[in-house]
Amino acid sequence: MVNAAVVGFYRRLEGSDIRKEQIKEAIAIVQKSDCTKGSAIASVIFGFMILGFLALENALLYKGFLFCFQLNDTLYKSPLHSSAEGL
After folding, report:
1. CB within 8 A of 7, min separation 6: which ones?
2. In this structure, what are the phi and psi dihedrals at residue 10, rounded to the nearest 5 degrees?
3. What's the Rg (C-alpha) of the chain?
4. Distance (Å, rounded) from C-alpha 4 to C-alpha 2?
């Protein structure tokens, strides 16, 4: 996608003062660059960060809702508390 944008930009400049040889060299450099590995790593890191922030926000909203309305947390019960209730 980036390659297409750069190629389109340089092809648009073909009629201006830039020589065609320089345009061809620039297009060749862009097409030879292989940024897929770095982009994939950055995308994975970004994805984990976004999921982490969404999970944290969800937990904070849940706990804030319980605190605001003074409700008990019934979503999670400790195994120690659940066995003590039966006695």
Report:
1. 27, 30, 31
2. -70, -35
3. 28
4. 5
